[in-house]
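Researcher: I've been going back and forth with a colleague about how Phenylalanine--tRNA ligase beta subunit might be arranged in three dimensions. Neither of us has a model we trust, so I'd like an independent prediction. The organism is Mesomycoplasma hyorhinis, in case that matters for your notes. Sequence below.
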Amino acid sequence: MIFSLKKLKQLANLDKSITLEDVTKAINSIGFELESATKLNNIQGIKFGHIIELYKNPNADNLTVCQIQFADKQRTIQTRATNLKQDDYVMAFVPGASSGEVIFAAKELKGIISEGMLVSLNELGFDSSLVSKEVADGIFSFKKVDLNLDPLDYFDLDDYLLDIKILANRADANSYLIMAKELAAYFRINSQTIVIKNKPSFKSSFVFEDFLDNKLTGFEAKMDEDFELSIQDQLLLLKSSIKLVNPVVDLSNLTLIMTGQPVHVYDVDKLNSQKLVPAIKSQVKETVLGNKEVEISNALVICNENEEVLAFPAVIGLEKNAVDKNSKNILFEIGIFDTQQTRKTTKELKINNLTSNRAIKNFALGSLDLAHKFLKSYLNNFSFPINLATISKKEITFDLHKMKHIAGIEFYKDADFKNVLVSLKSLGFEFDFPNKKVKIPTYRYDIELNEDMLEEFLRFFGYTKLEPTLPKNSVFKIQAFDVLKEQIRALGFTEVKTYTLVSQLKNEFNPFNFTEQINLSTFLSKERETIRNTQAISISEIVEYNLKRKIEVVSFFEVGMINSEINSLVLASTEFNFYQLKQKLLNLFSLDFEFVRTDSEQFHNGVSAKIYYNNVLLGWIGKPHPKLKLANAFYLEINLDRLQEFLVKNNKFQAYNINELKTRDITFTLDKKESIKDNIAKLKQIPGIFSISLKDSIYINEKHKITLHLVCDEKSIEFINKIYENLI
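Model: Here is an independent structure prediction for Phenylalanine--tRNA ligase beta subunit. You can compare it with whatever you and your colleague have in mind.
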């Protein structure tokens, strides 16, 4: 967005000692990027003048002689412009003034000395196509002004235009008021606040309704007869390449660049109804502003109760209810609209303007309140707000200890951290450190997580203080998984790569019972808006893709991330069944996993189990419930981070035992419904047993006889013979 340096400094209360270089450093330090700084013009020495007399040059029909009073003396200046009249105030290049390399001097024109040249908008560095033809072709004139003032300073013409790149997640900063707050926070001073001199004087009879994700607010105003924006405000619009239309429309455009909130205006006397509601309509044919007829198949519109289209919100209004210079009863519409539908409407209308470009980005409700306040600071007679509820600050938790591990520095123990808090509090953050809570400014929509809050701390702490450090030359636990992949390939599986991000709708399957779903605050597509809770969601799509192409025997695996940066391994196969996948898991990790049948509604309970080790949930095996609509295959998923805790061991060398292993069969007599599970658990506690397998099972006289086959060494045989003597 293009910003005026002078306006930013005024709003941020920055004094003249703060230079362009200082502002550039501040902008780049707090997370934005200054792409260019362009001087508005190269003018020096112009002065204010008051036209005392006008008359035609008798020697030239197209020259008008102006007698002009300046602060120091009266001068005669000739012009070809036809828009001037006696008592106008103007600016002039007097002798000695300059524009670029041109230095002005007195010269004779058709027999009369002309002491300089009058100033038009074009000479000041503005695009003349953005004003009326009369103003564009003529001299820039205005109401009474102190002739002793410097025009460049008074009209903010000694200015730089800053092209600031705003990050996608900070669309709120596409506004003067927010960017000024950011700069003021950097320099630790208070920015200007909006002053509303008048209170609401009446209740509007208009009714606004919301629709789906579209929030519609506004108010009604009765305009003063002499209402107009100041010259400074009009020039600020021109600096943003916004065309001047009429005072009310210009005020709505000024609100856009000052608050970042699109505003639409209606002439109340041209409306046939007092109810407005957003809606999506098909086959819309209307005449938009500029007398252009459009016809689109599907659009987001503002309608009345008779379904008459009144506007394309945040894109463009219609001629039939347009505000003109004679409009005095105005309805201001201030809304937040569905970005996807707004983008479609903009594309169909083939309209690309500052309003639509802002509307297709995200908003927080605080933007509505900011726009209401800014507009009312310019008005004298306005209604109570329509459909605007009190907006409260969102509260999130934060953890400085976790932030330290991410940032690599205990920034909160630095002496400058108190200044960081001063800056953030000036932006509207409210901290509750004992309870690890923070309230977020109402205009910020992008702060959801601990990491988001870390970014806010570091923006004002200073990224340059994060010193780079060499990585430690130590073995990172994740490296073991490289060997793991080779082992899995050897078992007959093919590695695949899938997206970590999925849609919220597909993320319903949650086999690890995570309590928090990690959603993105900004995303490019609804298909990639949240971090998956299981890799089964993603790998299922690969299986389904192959099945649809008649490739019916597949076995895939992936090592990837789920939920809050948890590494997991997933296997998916139409080739191997439950028991075969179970055996492959045992072959991979050589741990005595416990498989417990699940009764969760998320699983096909007849063929699914949770996987435990030492009473810790590590994963699951089987099939998800058919209602989840995953591909028909067997799945196995293991939390590798938790599993790694049990794999890391300090192995000690033991002398090789050359003796042959022994075998023993033990028969247990159990009640009919009694489980063999506890007996197997006791056997596993005996050192030296290498394997336990089922040899025989039979029911006799309401008793269940189970014979287990053991393979073990000599010492364990002696122990087993002693303990289970009567069972062998």
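Researcher: What would you highlight for our discussion?
Model: I'd start with this: Confidence is low (pLDDT under 50) at residues 476-480. After that, consider the following. The two ends are 86 Å apart (CA to CA).
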